[in-house]
Design goal:
This protein is an alpha/beta fold. Helix content is about 40%, strand content about 15%. It has three domains: about 130 residues, NadA-like (Rossmann fold, 3-Layer(aba) Sandwich); about 130 residues, Rossmann fold (3-Layer(aba) Sandwich), CATH 3.40.50; about 90 residues, Rossmann fold, CATH 3.40.50. α5 packs parallel to α6. The longest helix has 18 residues. The N and C termini lie far apart (about 70 Å). The protein binds iron/sulfur cluster (SF4). Iron/sulfur cluster binds next to loops.
Length: about 375
């Protein structure tokens, strides 16, 4: 039988105040109207949000969805957003370029980037007439921060005559200095295209050293690269994969190409976030692990309820700066606007357009796994 222990009234602690809940602190309450408007959304996140937590979250979701209508705004939710942001307030979900392109096609006046700063810049590059907001200005990226436009100008001086390809995970300033952009889906295709078009056997691919190494293992074109790294994907190792396989016999290991090459050597499949998601949907493996950002696993798991997910993933601290609270604040106060100088925007857009002009691939391709480590030059 349960015992009730009554300690009597808790003495007041001088100066102590109950911390207001995020919705309450914004004057938002779980009213009958909010409940009616949000009840249908709860099943989308029931694996991540308990029924007890829902009354604290629903008012924020309702507040954001109301402000979106008032401001004619769309929320772009990157694959690495937590499921509450991704599934409850995101109007579009996916990778950064796909999101920016989808937002550009809408007649929305405002874009809220639920992602990091370079992604907001990409949205601005493609939608110069829309107001682009980022909920937290500190949402940066170790990879984008590894290189500047001035660095690229120096590289071009020392390697004149070679085409410069930049990964989309870079600032507008860097894109503006490059000939063409690439994504983790089409990096091999872009490198081979520019090598052929320029009649060269070497291509500069910036700034991710590991993506460049993995591309180099998939092409005969010689790659020159930079020492940038994604702080999330660089943490995985081939040894991690072996330990996961020992602990979870039969698990299918999927890796992102920003991981070190020894991870791809041990993986069953490697590809962009779209390719990983596509793989799980198409093949429905019994048990899978996604070696990428944690929330990507949660979001793919929510869409594939029959698949068991092992989750030794890494969190991106920059992505995790974005929350329902600061998305609400950004829309309410129309802060923090991201702008790109027009001359930079035009040149950066030219690099993106050059990539978009290439033939589209029907399904997101994978990278070679179990490949030998490729030779490349890191600047
Ligand atoms: S996951 Fe890596 S590449 Fe993406 S924003 Fe975070 S640090 Fe940058």
């Amino acid at each position: 039988m349960a015992r009730i222990i009554d300690f009597g009234p808790v003495p007041a602690i001088p100066g102590a105040r109950r911390k207001a809940k995020p919705a309450e602190a914004r004057g938002l309450a779980y009213t009958a109207e909010v409940k009616a408007a949000t009840d249908a959304l709860y099943p989308l996140v029931e694996d991540f949000v308990t029924p007890m937590e829902w009354p604290a979250i629903a008012p924020l979701v309702h507040g954001i969805n109301t402000l979106k209508k008032q401001r004619n705004a769309v929320v772009l939710a990157h694959n690495y957003m937590t499921p509450d942001v991704f599934r409850l307030v995101g109007d579009f979900q996916g990778d950064s370029l796909q999101l920016a392109r989808e937002a550009a096609r809408t007649d929305a006046k405002v874009i809220v980037q639920a992602g990091v700063h370079f992604m907001a810049e990409t949205s601005k590059i493609l939608s110069p007439d829309k107001t682009v907001l980022i909920p937290d200005l500190r949402a940066g990226c170790s990879l984008a921060a590894s290189i500047t436009g001035a660095d690229v100008r120096l590289i071009k001086e020392t390697h004149s005559g070679l085409p410069v390809v930049t990964y989309v995970n870079t600032t507008a300033d860097v894109k503006a200095e490059c000939d063409i952009t690439c994504t983790s889906s089409n990096a091999v295709q872009v490198v081979e295209h520019v090598a052929k078009e320029w009649g060269v056997d070497r291509v500069i691919l910036l700034p991710d050293e590991f993506l460049a190494r993995n591309v180099a293992a998939n092409t005969d074109v010689r790659i020159i690269t930079w020492h940038g790294r994604c702080e999330v994907h660089e943490k995985f190792s081939g040894e991690d994969v072996r330990q996961i396989r020992d602990a979870h016999p039969g698990v299918i290991v999927l890796a992102h190409p920003e991981c070190p090459p020894d991870v791809l050597e041990e993986a069953d499949f490697a590809g962009s976030t779209s390719a990983l998601s596509h793989y799980v949907k198409q093949k429905s493996p019994h048990k899978v692990v996604l070696l990428t950002e944690c929330s990507m696993s949660d979001n793919v798991a929510a869409e594939n309820p029959g698949v068991e997910f092992v989750k030794p993933c890494n969190l991106c601290p920059h992505m995790k700066r974005i929350s329902l609270e600061n998305i609400y604040d950004a829309l309410r106060d129309m802060k923090h606007e991201v702008t790109v100088p027009e001359d930079v925007r035009v040149r950066a857009k030219a690099a993106i357009d050059a990539m978009l002009a290439l033939p589209k691939m029907a399904t997101p391709p994978g990278f070679k796994v179990h490949a030998d480590l490729a030779q490349l030059v890191v600047m």
